[in-house]
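Support request, priority: normal
Reporter: lab tech (M.K.)
Component: structure prediction queue

Hi team, I submitted a job for DUF2232 domain-containing protein from [Ruminococcus] torques yesterday, and the status page still shows it as pending. I've pasted the exact input below so you can check whether something in the sequence is tripping the parser. The sequence length should be 176 residues. Please let me know if I need to resubmit or if it's stuck on your end.
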Amino acid sequence: MHVKAKQMAFGGLILAVTVVCMALGSVIETNTLFLLAAAAFFVGIVIREFGLRTGAAFYLAAILLGFLVTPNKFYVITFAAMGFYILGIEAVWMFLMKRPQMGHRMGIYWLVKYVIFNLVYLPCLFGFRSMLFQKAVSDQLLLAAVMVGQIAILVYDKAYQYVQGTLWEKWRKRIL
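Reply from support: The job had stalled in the queue. We restarted it manually and it finished. Here are the results:
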């Protein structure tokens, strides 16, 4: 596999910014989710610029480096979940764009988005109940957490679309 020098340099810089965002999430507690989401958005930038394979390698490198550098490992796991969502939706998008004859592509795309999110979110919510909540929680509160997650993914997805479509398009002309 031959990698261009510019691609390697850009990937290294973005990887450094990603890990800094993860580490800052541990330091600046009030902006943790914002910084982890920003770090995960870089996975999508690398995928769109260099392809799915390079993006997957970048994602794995960010997780490994995050475990080595970041003081709070729980934030790296959160980044991994957010990045996995982006990796998954970008892969599905690329798959669907190669098949223009397929009907209801946007409906399929949104359905798969929710499936990928829930494959990550629900096992974490139910499996790590004691880590997420200080006391034992009722089933109603757990159901509320599931519903809040379904709404939060809409906000996260809209923010990702804005970053990719607006912010990155402006900055990529200056950077690349």
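The mean pLDDT is 88. Residues 5-175 form one domain. Let us know if anything else looks off. Ticket resolved.
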